[in-house]
Amino acid sequence: MTAAGPTGADGAGGDGRVVVVTGGSRGIGYGIASRFAERGARVMLTSRKAESVAAAAEAIAAARTQAAGRSRPGDVVGMVAHVADEAAARACLASAVARWGRVDVLVNNVGVNPHFGTTLDVDRARWDKIFEVNLWAPLMWTRLAVEAGLGRADGGAVVNVSSNLALAPGGPSGVYGASKAALNYLTQQLAVELAPTVRVNAVAPGVVDTDMATVLVAQGDQLAGRWPLARFGAPLDVADAVEFLAGPQSSWLTGQILVVDGGARLVGGTDVIEAAGCSPKPEYSPKM
Ligand SMILES: NC(=O)c1ccc[n+]([C@@H]2O[C@H](COP(=O)([O-])OP(=O)(O)OC[C@H]3O[C@@H](n4cnc5c(N)ncnc54)[C@H](OP(=O)(O)O)[C@@H]3O)[C@@H](O)[C@H]2O)c1
Q: Which residue's CA is the nearest one to ligand 1's atom 26?
């Protein structure tokens, strides 16, 4: 069995794929879940908050029903899971398999950045949080997904959501960048270890207009205007790249880090963020 797909139940890369997206209640994860749902996949999205994850699943299902002109109830499901909670992750994957009989695609989307500032100033709580959420969780979800049968049917795909900051040291997000650089390495290592049944790739977005990037997006053209494509990303810009890396059009790709940043890294990466005058986040309280 090789990872030519996932092809999904219809054998064409569309309807039938079972896709699990961590952190799908808003932002990039919401865009990714929407894109897969729009293509006819069966989608499970997760987040920490019951209300927001349920609302997101409902909105995505409604949009799909409207677009497709038909209803397939139960094809978009939200479940509560702190991304680093192993029991919750296991329950999500078991639920996907119980509902749909398989898992074809895992998108490790959740990521956090609670420390803006010089790297030597990071405290242990923030360091642990960043590495737990950004590195440990993708590894754990991948392991559990493989145990749940990822790749067993038609070949599976894991797509990790990294960051272009992993490739451009020097800005005020050094710890976050280190965690995402480690995620890139993990992507490549797992691509080797899980071949040929599961392909493992990553996207490395630039600044995307989401809650996480509010401070940066507030800089407007002063920041985005410096980049070749002169705008912030939208969640669907990233979703399109994720869909490509998860689907049959990329069947001979594994271990790749696809930068999706409007060319920002070509002209400086993190220094433009500093130049835009972003300040460190003031306080931090770890939440489970
Ligand atoms: N936005 C950017 O400019 C940008 C750039 C490069 C890379 N990225 C990466 O893209 C990914 C998504 O970022 P985003 O901008 O979409 O973030 P976001 O707007 O903050 O959304 C984060 C999503 O993850 C969920 N979430 C957060 N912490 C969680 C946790 N501990 N457990 C479970 N769910 C959690 C949130 O829902 P709840 O709050 O309900 O849990 C929400 O659905 C991250 O990996 C980030 O590092 C973002």
A: 23
